[in-house]
């Protein structure tokens, strides 16, 4: 699987050093609120289906076009 471009390279590298997979580190580093501290990022449940789809696309989740909102959330959390 190809790794998408990373929006927050510093955070990505820190997560990789902690042992996160490339895909999971990319998913976290590419969130719209990447790098915000103190729990400011909104939970996936508050994202629109379109936002979840775009995030799934950014991290290369296959089969995303057939997923509903709960399936997208599950896929993003378990990628």
From TrEMBL:
Region (Disordered): 17-42
Any Pfam family the entry gives: Rho_N
SUPFAM superfamilies named among the record's database cross-references: Rho N-terminal domain-like (SSF68912)
Positions of the Rho termination factor-like N-terminal domain: 50-76
Protein name (database record): Rho termination factor N-terminal domain-containing protein
Organism encoding this protein: Mariniflexile gromovii
């Amino acid at each position: 699987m190809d790794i998408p471009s990373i929006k927050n390279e510093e955070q990505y590298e820190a997560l990789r050093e902690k042992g996160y997979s490339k895909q999971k580190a990319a998913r976290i580093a590419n969130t719209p609120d990447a790098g915000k501290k103190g729990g400011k990022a909104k939970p996936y449940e508050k994202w629109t289906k379109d936002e979840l789809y775009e995030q799934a696309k950014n991290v290369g989740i296959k089969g995303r076009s057939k997923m509903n909102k709960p399936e997208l959330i599950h896929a993003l959390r378990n990628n």
